[in-house]
Write a structure and sequence with these properties.
heterodimer, A: mainly beta, 4-stranded antiparallel sheet, B: mainly beta, 6-stranded mixed sheet, 5-stranded antiparallel sheet
Chain lengths: 112, 109
């Protein structure tokens, strides 16, 4: 069974540009989470989807971040316009509703 | 909000036992999870404690005391491949995770 995949693995963009990150969860997992780790600090929650609905987006930093999960399958996280402080590793995780979350390898975003 | 504290680094030799403590202050606590991360890769689930007591899974065990807001991860018979970062994380009702800063475990020969 394929695990959680994320694309791209790395992205380097300039301040003010737009970047879209993609996450493909494990098939059948209704729950999808986005997390971010900035500058070696703790991994922080961004938002949680249940199927295509946003269950909790309390961790989204500001309105420059937009997440979608069309059809309840893959999810995208768009940052527009990107700022320097957005640099970090963005992780996606999926789960079937139990206590274990399966993380993807992350997207390393660098904003110059 | 959530606040978790765990040691930043631990070093031990192969075959030794390491205990990583985690204390937390939180609202809406449902359980304490532990994740392992190698070289900044995908965090991997190790264990989850919702009730007080010890959970054992092979060489790894995890303990929780809800009254003390405290838990630990115990790594036994350390192997070189156990060198990694270990994160404790508090779960809310919808399994949203709030992570500690992580403990880097270095295993020496």
């Amino acid at each position: 069974e394929a695990g959680v995949t994320q694309f791209p693995s790395h992205s380097v963009i300039e301040k003010g540009q737009t970047v879209t990150l993609r996450c493909d969860p494990i098939s059948g997992h209704d729950n999808l989470y986005w997390y971010r780790r900035v500058m070696g600090k703790e991994i922080k929650f961004l938002l949680h989807f249940v199927k295509e609905s946003k269950q909790d987006e309390s961790g989204m930093p500001n309105n420059r971040f937009l997440a979608e999960r069309t059809g309840g399958t893959y999810s995208t996280l768009k940052v527009q316009p990107a700022e320097l402080e957005d640099s970090g590793v963005y992780f996606c995780a999926s789960g079937a509703g139990g206590d274990e979350q399966f993380f993807g390898p992350g997207t390393r975003l660098t904003v110059l | 909000g959530q606040s978790l504290e765990q040691p930043s680094e631990v070093t031990a030799v192969e075959g030794a036992i390491v205990q990583i403590n985690c204390t937390y202050q939180t609202s809406g606590f449902y359980g304490l999870s532990w994740y392992q991360q190698h070289d900044g890769g995908a965090p991997t689930f190790l264990s989850y404690n919702a009730l007080d007591g010890l959970e054992e899974t092979g060489r790894f065990s995890s303990f929780l005391s809800r009254s003390d807001s405290y838990g630990y991860l115990l790594l036994q018979e350390l192997q070189m491949k156990d060198s990694a970062s270990y994160f404790c994380a508090v779960s809310s009702w919808d399994y949203k995770l709030s992570f500690g800063a992580g403990t880097t475990v270095t295993v020496r020969a």
